[in-house]
Design goal:
single chain, 168 residues, mainly beta, four-stranded antiparallel beta sheet, 2 helices, 6% helix
Length: 168
């Protein structure tokens, strides 16, 4: 399948790891969640319009999410070196209505909500809602279903289960 478009993104203060990307079509932007940063950092770039030539853009920082708990000293003692990665955001998705953003770490998921017309800049200042999900090894993929009622979570480790999760 041919590439529809390409977007070169630069970070404002140098390279970083980013695995979590969510497209907000209504707002015309792409949300990028940086990995390996404490607190979790969220950036945005404009969503390219059809037919626009590709150009480099600089990601704009919009929020830091302080409500994602980091590994405890006990976690670090029990499971080095993997424990230090447990709270890193590995995936993100927006609900079909664009009002909820779900973030996945290796051990938990977090839900952020906004009201219609509220920018993510404001909504991400509130503490995220922690979602109780089943234990999964190396959770790396998350997505809302088409009606936005359920969330699907996948892992990288075999047998690579795909888990349907109802956050309500």
């Amino acid at each position: 399948m041919p590439v529809a478009w390409r977007l070169e993104v630069r970070w404002p203060d140098g390279p970083r790891d980013c695995e979590a990307i969510a497209v907000d079509v209504a707002a015309g932007e792409i949300l990028l969640v940086a990995k390996k940063r404490v607190p979790t950092q969220v950036f945005r770039v404009p969503l390219p319009r059809a037919g626009e030539p590709a150009s480099a853009v600089v990601a704009e920082p919009i929020a830091s999410i302080a409500g994602i708990p980091q590994p405890t000293d006990d976690d670090l003692r029990r499971a080095p070196p993997g424990a230090r990665y447990m709270s890193q955001v590995t995936s993100a998705d927006l609900s079909p209505d664009g009002l909820r953003l779900v973030l996945l770490t290796y051990r938990e998921a977090y839900l952020m909500s906004r009201t219609a017309g509220e920018p993510w800049l404001e909504a991400l200042r509130r503490a995220p809602q922690r979602l109780r999900m089943p234990p999964l090894v190396q959770a790396e993929a998350i997505a809302f279903d088409r009606d936005g009622e359920r969330i699907w979570i996948g892992t990288e480790k075999l047998p690579a289960p795909l888990v349907r999760f109802d956050p309500r």
